[in-house]
């Protein structure tokens, strides 16, 4: 079974692991929803998908810049 580790990048820090064993990813409006194999769901706002590496089972998200 190929499950994802999900990382978020931002300008201040490198990659931060935010979820693992993720089996399902969906985009709903301005959010990315992650669901793991135990059906626990995590919702992340203000992020964009940067890359999906199927060989390494890694999904990388990047925080959007705030327009303040």
Mean of pLDDT: 92
Give the helix proportion (percent range).
under 10%
Helical/strand content category: mainly beta
Stretches where pLDDT is under 50 for at least 5 consecutive residues are: none
Order of helices and strands: EEEEEE
Oligomer: single chain
Radius of gyration: 12 Å
Distance between the termini: 42 Å
Helix tally? 0
Summarize the structure in words:
This protein is mainly beta. It has no helices and six strands. It has strands spanning 4-9, 16-28, 31-36, 41-45, 47-53, 58-63. It has a six-stranded mixed sheet with strand order 4-3-2-1-6-5, with no helix packed on it. It is globular and about 40 Å long.
Describe this structure in a few short sentences.
This protein is mainly beta.
Tags for this model:
mainly beta; 63% strand; 68 residues; 6-stranded mixed sheet
SSE layout and pairing:
Layout lengths: L3 E6 L6 E13 L2 E6 L4 E5 L1 E7 L4 E6 L5
Parallel strand pairs: 1-6
Antiparallel strand pairs: 1-2, 2-3, 3-4, 5-6
């Amino acid at each position: 079974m190929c499950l994802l580790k999900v990382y978020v990048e931002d300008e201040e820090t490198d990659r931060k692991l935010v979820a693992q064993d993720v089996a399902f990813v969906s985009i709903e409006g301005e959010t990315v929803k992650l669901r793991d194999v135990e059906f626990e769901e995590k919702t992340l706002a203000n992020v964009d998908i940067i890359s999906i590496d199927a060989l390494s089972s890694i999904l990388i998200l990047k925080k959007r810049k705030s327009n303040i």
